[in-house]
Amino acid sequence: MKPRAARVLAAALRAWTNPTPPPDTAAARLVIRQPDDWAHTATINLTSGHTDRLIGLIRRDVADHTPRTCTPEQAAEAIRHHLAYCLAAGHHAIRHADLLDLASRTGQSKTWLAHHITELIDGGHLRETWWRPGTYRITTPPTWAIRPGITARRPRR
């Protein structure tokens, strides 16, 4: 790292997080130190929104430089696990950007993701929200849809 890089990074992060939240309401604190003697350069308080955006930037950068070796089946399984995790955490909606981030980390394209979202909607795992574009409600399909051979309708005579 160049001698001034730590100070430039600190200034950029300080400008990015402006206005800076008070220390008691911050979700995270980032301490920047300069190499060689590792002297303190800056302490930057981050809100939860700043933290989420920073993690998203880092994930996208890591995804761009990570070898993609997942098969479509493994990527679909990763999305199913993520949906189950979101439900377990109490989240009942998911954004398209989150699914796109997950698909890119597993090496799948936007076209694959669009097809897979259609399959999840048709399977009853997701429902489109008309009031918030790009957001899907996570649903659990009814038990009759999970068990093969059992339908909700009676056959017509």
In summary, what is this structure?
With 157 residues, the chain is an alpha+beta fold. It has helices at residues 5-16, 48-64, 72-88, 96-105, 110-122, 143-146; strands at residues 28-34, 39-46, 93-95, 126-128, 135-138.
Describe this structure in words.
The chain is an alpha+beta fold and 157 residues long. It has helices spanning 5-16, 48-64, 72-88, 96-105, 110-122, 143-146, and strands spanning 28-34, 39-46, 93-95, 126-128, 135-138. The relative contact order is 0.09. The model is unreliable at 147-155 (pLDDT under 50).
Q: State the order of secondary-structure elements, H for helix, E for strand.
A: HEEHHEHHEEH
Please report the number of helical segments: 6
Question: Over all CA atoms, what is the radius of gyration?
Answer: 22 Å
How would the global form be characterised?
Answer: elongated
Properties at a glance:
two-stranded antiparallel sheet; alpha+beta; 157 residues
Protein topology:
Elements: H1 5-16, E1 28-34, E2 39-46, H2 48-64, H3 72-88, E3 93-95, H4 96-105, H5 110-122, E4 126-128, E5 135-138, H6 143-146
Antiparallel strand pairs: 1-2, 3-5, 4-5
